[in-house]
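pasting for the record
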Amino acid sequence: MNAKELRAKSATDLSEELLKLRREQFNLRMARATGQAAKPDQFAKVRKNIARVKTVLAQTAAGAKASGGKA
């Protein structure tokens, strides 16, 4: 998932995507705590995807604020 794909989504879709990624992050942490973590690189990937979604959400909110709340 890249930022261009995320910018095409609505704010509600982005919020749902963020919730999905947070759940995945939680599940990865629980798997690591129980010794079942299979792919350690997934932690960084999920964290970066969360950051991408939050950045796009902030940009759309700033854009809506700058345009007078019409987004």
